[in-house]
C-alpha cells in the first residue's frame, strides 16, 4: 500500500477549508501505487483523491503535471483534474508534503486485460499524444537514456543479489543503448507510465487515464514501447502478439507511426524495459522492510529486455503493413 506519509483527520479537515470541496465525511489510504501517497476522500460534495507527492516527484515539476491534466481535459481527454484552491493555486501542503486534491475518475483498472483492451489503450495513447500538442510547459524525461547510468550506479554494487551476472549484462546494455539511442524521432508530450493500473475501464469501455506524474517531452514511439511492455506480455513472461497487433492498430488509427519510428521500436522497447527494470531494482534494494508498499519485481522487466534484444522488426510485435 502506498502511503508513505500519514495524515491526521484534524490536519486534513483544516486542509480542506482551502477548497470548495465540502466538509470531510471519511477518508482512507489507497492500497495501490508505489510512487505517491493517495487517499480516497468522501466529503459532503462527493468523492475526491488526495495526493501527497513523494520522493520521485520534484516539486518544481508539479505545475507541468497539473497544468497538463487541465490541457488534456480541455481537449477532450478523459483524465482527472486538480481542484483549484480558494486562492487560485492548484497545489497546497499537508503533513510537510506538496499536496493536491484531484477529481475522482469512475472505473477500475483491469487485472487481466485482453487484446480488445490493448486496442483501446493504443488509441487513447495516440489521442493523448495528439491532445498534448500546444501545451506550453516542457519537462525533460529524467528517466530516459541520460538518466539510466546514474540510476544504475546507485544499485550496481548490490545488483548481483537479485541475479548473478547482472553487473556485466547491464553495463553492456547501457553502453549499447547510449550509443544507438535515436535522437530525431517525432516527439511531444508523452505519458511515460501508461501501465494497466493507470487506465480505467467501465466494462470494456476505456473511461480515462490517470497518473501523469512521469509525463514529459520525449519521443512518441518510446511511449508506445512502454505500453507494449506493460500490456502485451503474459504473466508467464511470453509476448502476446495478438495484443501487440491490437495495441499498434489502435494507436495507428489515430496517429500512424512513420518508418523511422517503426524501425526504432525494438530498440526503444529495450530502453523502456531497462528504465522500469532500473527503478524497480532501486526500490527493491532500497525500500525498508515494513514500508507500506508492494514492491514490484525487477526481473519481470529484465526478461522483457532480453526478449526485445532478439526482436528484429516491428512485425514481430504484430505490426500489420498498411
Ligand atoms: N483520480 C482518480 N480517481 C479514482 N481513483 C484514483 C485516482 N487517482 C488515483 N486513484 C487510485 O489510486 C491508485 C494509485 O494512484 P496512482 O497510480 O496515481 O499512484 P502512484 O503511486 O503514482 O502509482 P504508480 O505506481 O502507478 O506510479 C490508483 O490505482 C487508483 O486506484
Ligand atoms: N509503473 C511502474 C511503477 C511506477 O513507476 C512499474 O510498474 O514499475
Automatic annotation (TrEMBL):
It catalyses: L-homoserine + ATP = O-phospho-L-homoserine + ADP + H(+). InterPro entries: Aminoglycoside_PTrfase, Homoserine_kinase_II, Kinase-like_dom_sf, Pseudomonas-type_ThrB. One of its GO terms (molecular function) is ATP binding. Keywords: Amino-acid biosynthesis, ATP-binding, Kinase, Nucleotide-binding, Threonine biosynthesis, Transferase. The keyword Ribonucleoprotein does not apply. Pathway: Amino-acid biosynthesis; L-threonine biosynthesis; L-threonine from L-aspartate: step 4/5. Residues 27-257 form the Aminoglycoside phosphotransferase domain. GO terms for biological process: threonine biosynthetic process. Its EC number is 2.7.1.39. It comes from the Bacteria. Pfam families: APH. It is an enzyme of class 2 (transferase). Belongs to the pseudomonas-type ThrB family. This is Homoserine kinase. It comes from Rhizobium subbaraonis.
Amino acid at each position: 500500500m502506498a502511503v508513505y506519509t500519514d495524515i491526521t483527520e484534524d490536519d486534513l479537515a483544516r486542509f480542506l477549508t482551502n477548497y470548495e470541496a465540502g466538509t470531510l465525511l471519511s477518508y482512507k489510504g489507497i492500497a495501490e501505487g508505489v510512487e505517491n501517497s493517495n487517499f480516497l476522500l468522501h466529503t459532503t460534495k462527493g468523492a475526491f483523491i488526495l495526493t501527497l507527492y513523494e520522493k520521485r516527484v520534484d516539486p518544481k515539476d508539479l505545475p507541468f503535471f497539473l497544468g497538463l491534466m487541465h490541457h488534456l481535459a480541455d481537449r477532450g481527454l478523459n483524465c482527472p483534474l486538480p481542484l483549484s484552491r480558494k486562492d487560485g493555486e492548484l497545489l497546497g501542503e499537508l503533513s510537510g508534503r506538496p499536496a493536491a486534491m484531484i477529481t475522482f475518475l469512475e472505473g477500475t483498472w483491469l487485472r487481466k486485460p485482453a487484446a480488445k483492451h490493448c486496442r483501446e489503450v493504443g488509441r487513447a495513447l495516440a489521442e493523448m499524444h495528439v491532445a498534448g500538442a500546444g501545451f506550453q510547459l516542457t519537462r525533460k524525461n529524467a528517466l530516459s537514456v541520460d538518466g539510466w547510468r546514474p540510476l544504475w550506479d546507485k544499485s550496481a554494487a548490490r545488483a548481483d543479489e537479485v541475479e548473478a551476472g547482472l553487473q556485466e549484462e547491464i553495463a553492456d546494455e547501457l553502453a549499447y543503448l547510449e550509443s544507438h539511442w535515436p535522437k530525431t524521432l517525432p516527439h511531444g508530450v508523452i505519458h511515460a507510465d501508461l501501465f494497466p493500473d493507470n487506465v480505467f475501464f467501465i466494462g470494456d469501455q476505456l473511461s480515462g487515464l490517470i497518473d501523469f506524474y512521469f509525463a514529459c517531452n520525449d519521443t512518441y514511439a518510446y511511449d508506445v514501447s512502454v505500453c507494449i511492455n506493460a500490456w502485451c506480455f503474459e504473466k508467464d513472461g511470453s509476448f502476446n502478439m495478438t495484443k501487440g497487433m491490437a495495441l499498434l492498430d489502435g494507436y495507428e488509427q489515430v496517429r500512424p507511426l512513420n518508418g523511422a519510428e517503426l524501425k526504432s521500436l525494438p530498440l526503444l522497447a529495450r530502453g523502456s524495459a531497462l528504465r522500469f527494470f532500473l527503478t524497480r531494482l532501486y526500490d527493491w534494494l532500497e525500500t525498508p522492510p515494513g514500508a507500506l508498499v508492494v514492491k514490484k519485481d525487477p526481473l519481470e522487466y529484465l526478461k522483457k529486455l532480453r526478449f526485445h534484444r532478439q526482436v528484429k522488426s516491428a512485425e514481430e510485435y504484430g505490426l500489420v503493413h498498411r
